[in-house]
Write a structure and sequence with these properties.
Layout: H1 3-22, H2 29-43, E1 45-48, E2 51-54, E3 57-62, H3 64-71, H4 75-92, E4 94-96, E5 100-106, E6 115-120, E7 126-134, E8 137-140, E9 145-149, E10 156-157, E11 168-172, E12 177-181, E13 188-190, E14 193-195, E15 197-200, E16 205-208, E17 211-221, E18 231-232
Parallel strand pairs: 2-4, 3-5, 9-10
Antiparallel strand pairs: 1-2, 3-6, 5-18, 7-8, 7-17, 9-11, 11-12, 12-15, 13-14, 13-16, 16-17
Helix pairs in contact: 2-4
Amino acid sequence: MGILDNIERGLERAVNGAFAKTFRSGLQPVEITAALRRELDTKAAVVSRDRILVPNVFTVHLAPADYERMRDMGATLTDELTRLVTKHAATQHYQFAGGIKISLISDATLAVGVVQVESENVSGSVTWVAVLEVAGKRYPISKSRTVIGRGTEADITVDDSGISRRHVEILWDGTRAQANDLGSTNGSVLNGQRLTSAALEADAVITAGQTTITLRLLPQAAGAEPEAATQHTPRAAEPGGFWGPRE
């Protein structure tokens, strides 16, 4: 570590200390996101003209009280942190060597409000887990066809009088998704356009009745258990389009 690195880390500790004094009530998730982005920017390494490599394994140190608060948010927090890290990488044209893994740990040496991030590059393979957010709840897609509707025969049942018993289906082949309206009475809208049948991209929003349905594609380490929400694996991040493996 060089003199400049020591100076930068010293400044970072000073900023974190000032932050802790200001926000005695505890750390907010947005501050963890900012720390992860800063870690990506600081550790970005230009490998070639079209390849900028950044760390993919992160250990986030939190004060015990902050750690307990964040842990109570469960997998949703880790999924959101992973999504925002991936989005920032796409914006900056960064690439990952392997699976993103974000671990939160309790560190008794830190004051409330302080966050410290350690990171490294670890090679790994790529897989994707599709998740549907329906009326604010998350449902991992475990099969190739998922039907959403008001009836008990639907795979995901929604309490919405504006939705048909079998309203819309989501097809997922492990790489790409498609949405089909199943001849519903009130119809479906995909990103503001009437839906009959269309490819479904990551973060696309379907509106059915008063219910919104959003596709999330979460990168996950190949071979990891689906419920291991702290470990994810993206390919080189790209804005827009399908979030599937490169051809």
